[in-house]
Specification:
The protein is built from 10 helices and no strands. By secondary structure, it is an all-alpha fold. Helix 4 runs antiparallel to helix 7 and helix 7 runs antiparallel to helix 10. The radius of gyration is 21 Å and the shape is globular.
């Protein structure tokens, strides 16, 4: 492993690492799109729920977050496929086209599975954002900011949200790492040739070197993402220093 030699596949006798790297591009794109969709949905709604605490908006956000946490990705995938096909006669395209080959076709293929994964992880981020922002809004320095005449938008987004980002960033880092392994079923449903589908195929074929290589590679990326998350703390919060 340290020499970059993950062995050869029992079924094809091909080196495993080049295949992992080619498949990882698909999984990485799916993970990044899902994370962006999750942030776009979860962080604004979480902040809104904290600001409108105990209102109907807050209740709606909490119910939505609960559904996002409770409904598994594979169930949501099948449900959306049924709804889109039966009600709107839309069928998600199968296969995969690289982004640099055809960007429009690529996004058309990737947007639905990315949206499903994004919804699946947005519930946790939404709940964490709400609780973190609520905790910061109770602190004295927010009262000082408001007393100095700052607008509510500045007090919330410039001061409260930034100070509430540490636990949110921690959760996001963990979710990005888990998405790499959690995309297995979604990739299989939408026929995406990613790392998850490669792992599942290796399991079904009893190709142990392939499964071992995929698991080790996913674990390495998970550790790397969490390391980058820790380094990001110092940028977000000047009180944290690694000197």
């Amino acid at each position: 492993m340290l020499r970059g030699d993950f062995g050869e596949s029992i079924r094809t006798s091909a080196p495993i690492l080049p295949e992992i790297l080619s498949r990882f591009k698909v999984t990485a794109e799916l993970t990044i799109l899902a994370a962006i969709i999750s942030w776009i949905i979860a962080i604004p709604l979480g902040v809104l729920a904290a600001v409108k605490r105990n209102s109907w908006v807050d209740r709606f956000v909490r119910v939505f977050a609960l559904l996002g946490v409770s409904v598994p990705g594979f169930a949501l995938s099948i449900l959306l496929i049924l709804v889109l096909s039966l009600c709107f006669h839309y069928f998600s395209p199968l296969g995969y086209v690289g982004f640099f080959e055809d960007p429009i076709r690529n996004l058309e293929i990737m947007i639905l599975p990315a949206f499903i994964l994004g919804i699946s992880i947005s519930g946790s981020v939404m709940r964490m954002t709400r609780s973190s922002v609520l905790e910061v809004l109770r602190q004295d320095f927010i009262k000082t900011v408001r007393a100095k005449g700052a607008s509510e938008r500045v007090a919330i987004f410039k001061h409260a949200l930034r100070n509430a980002l540490i636990p949110i960033i921690t959760l996001i880092g963990m979710q990005i790492g888990s998405l790499l392994g959690g995309a297995v079923i979604v990739e299989q449903i939408f026929s995406l040739p990613g790392l998850g589908q490669m792992t599942l195929t290796g399991i079904n074929q009893r190709d142990y070197p392939v499964v071992q290589g995929c698991v080790l590679f996913i674990a390495f990326i998970y550790v790397l993402v969490n390391l980058l998350t820790d380094l990001l703390y110092a940028y977000i919060d000047p009180r944290i220093s690694y000197d």
